[in-house]
Amino acid sequence: MSEQIVVPTMAEFMAQGKQPEVLFWVGCMGSFDDRAKKVTKAFVKLLHKSKVDFAVLGTEESCTGDPAKRAGNEFLFQMQAVTNIEVLNAYEIKKIVTACPHCFNTIKNEYPGLGGNYQVMHHTQFLKSLLDEGRLTVEGGQFKGKRITFHDPCYLGRGNDIYEAPRDLIRKLDAELVEMKSCKSRGLCCGAGGAQMFKEAEPGNKEINVKRTEEAIEVKPDIIAAGCPFCNTMMTDGVKSTNKESEIAVMDIAELIANAQDL
Amino acid sequence: MSYIPNILFAIALIVGIGFFANNVRKLIRNIKLGRDVDVSDHTSQRWKNMAMIALGQSKMVKRPVSGFLHIIVYVGFIIINIEVLEIIIDGLAGTHRIFSSIGPLYGVLIGVFEILAVLVFVSVIIFWIRRNIIKIKRFWANEMTSWPKNDANYILYIEMVLMALFLIMNATDLKFQAMENGNVISQFLTPLFSGLSEGTIHIIERSAWWLHILGILAFLNYLYFSKHLHILLAFPNTYFGKIAPKGQFKNNDVVTKEVKMMMDPNVDPFAAQPEGAGDETPAKFGASDVQDLSWVQLLNAYTCTECGRCTSECPANITGKKLSPRKIMMDTRDRLEEVGKNIDANNGVFKDDGKQLLDDYITREELWACTTCNACVEACPVSIDPMSIIVEMRNYLVMEQSAAPMELNNMMTNIENNGAPWPYNQMDRLNWKNE
């Protein structure tokens, strides 16, 4: 299936001598992971719907270095960071939005010390701001009255104290927002952070994502909402391993909003 | 002859405080074994953190039951210690309840002390029950055996004894009882001693008085060997705690210099080193022993009171992995103590003992189980950052030893070669728009 969507690149903007309102940092998951690509597309649709003048780096984008840094490879992290910063600064980027809390955290907090200063927003914050400015309308649609629980991504919540933007968006769907027993600053990790996504877990008695999924199942949600491509994968796997995939969907907030409007 | 008690008291005071000063000196020396780190920024925010988190116990009450009980013990402990001031003056000057001359207010003060003493006594018993009868899970983790387990109970026993002595001291002070001013609790204890002669009661009163002050001095010196050190160090520790967002990890300046040099087309790779540049010892990346950690991290280790809130929130620990953030802190302190003793035994110089924090205390399996989720940092009631130690030890493993797990090496090779953690071509990054 191929539905072409318009995704302008920075190079194209540059060629026309224009500057976009915001750079959408897609991230490695958003670019390559089949599940996360759907989130990327949903977000792009929302950007178009809201008439946001955006661009992506496309082939000029590279890993922020987050997993390398968390795994202990500071050298590789800084190589990635400095390379990315050179590209971003060459394009005179001022504002960045990303659907990945890991990219978000790294660019927002760790790039400034290396010469990269940008206004960085998580896509839930950005969507919330579009909503507040009246550029985006959120309606309940198929999600009206559904029980939705939000799984806080560590690098969005605890890492950067952002708890309300994603929740505000869920409430706008006229959905019933239900909280897990450990949420917000006490939210349990999905198990992917700190480069765990790329390796087998150490011996234990349970996988972290299964544990977290069980916590979600306790509140009997129709949907587990995610705000991070890694969490999304982990929770999806968790739901499958508990054989609940016919009852519970794992969806990114951007997908919820886009699907509610049948975009 | 009549000055003998005063002299004995002065000696006890000098010995007690002298030993304590020596302990503090050692503590500061050990903490200073850590790398220097600049914490002179954000002074007002730091004072605020200290006021809120240490003084105001804001994070303790996140768990209401233990938080509430802790506040009683904490407030009781501080306020009842005003009484120690009177005891010291009485002891040195040979007076008896010198503050009683201030009139009715004295009764109010002692009355408050007595009520607090009972509340502390009861709270401490509940703490003991939680630990030993209910056996709350976080108090029975793998690292909570032998000394850590006993230490926790000793502290509770000492507190019970000190509070009991305070009340007995008041109950058997017949002059004080006769004043009928402030003996709100102790008046009910006095009848217990009614069958005894006045002389015996006086001896009991004196004994309780002496044991109370000697107990406090002994407790003061117990701190250095105990997790109870947090009653002092919680204050500097919350002051020096992390200010940046929790998600932000420090960038290594030495690496920055090297990377910038590599990226700078104007740098001559064959240029001679500038004068004096070769004198610096080559920087070691990351931490394999306590001296590689910053002094704030070492202060963290001494501040840890082993409550286990971090471990009980750790996703790795919850799912049965070996990693326990509390153990990271306990290991760091144990190793630091070992290094300190080594320095003491070798006339002020550390002699290589063939051991280090990595492997001898903290295993690689523990380090690689961390998801860097910051739950431990968030949970700590006194701003300890166990995660930073884990990450710095990973830095050592990866950058000094190339000893990352194979899958992570693959991930890093991919990032290096094609800018993504998987073997996808960077030129395919925008393919999604056509799929």
From TrEMBL, chain A:
InterPro entries: Cys_rich_dom (IPR004017), HdrC_iron-sulfur_subunit (IPR051460). The keyword 4Fe-4S applies. Keywords: 4Fe-4S, Iron, Iron-sulfur, Metal-binding, Oxidoreductase. Pfam families: CCG (PF02754). It comes from the Bacteria. Residues 22-108, 148-235 form the Cysteine-rich domain. This is (Fe-S)-binding protein. It comes from Gelidibacter pelagius.
From TrEMBL, chain B:
Coiled coil: none annotated. It comes from the Bacteria. The keyword DNA-binding does not apply. The chain crosses the membrane at residues 6-24, 68-93, 105-129, 154-172, 207-225. The keyword Chaperone does not apply. PROSITE patterns: 4FE4S_FER_1, 4FE4S_FER_2. Residues 295-326, 360-392 form the 4Fe-4S ferredoxin-type domain. Keywords: 4Fe-4S, Iron, Iron-sulfur, Membrane, Metal-binding, Oxidoreductase, Transmembrane, Transmembrane helix. SUPFAM superfamilies: alpha-helical ferredoxin, Respiratory nitrate reductase 1 gamma chain. This is (Fe-S)-binding protein. It comes from Gelidibacter pelagius. The lineage of its organism: Bacteria, Pseudomonadati, Bacteroidota, Flavobacteriia, Flavobacteriales.
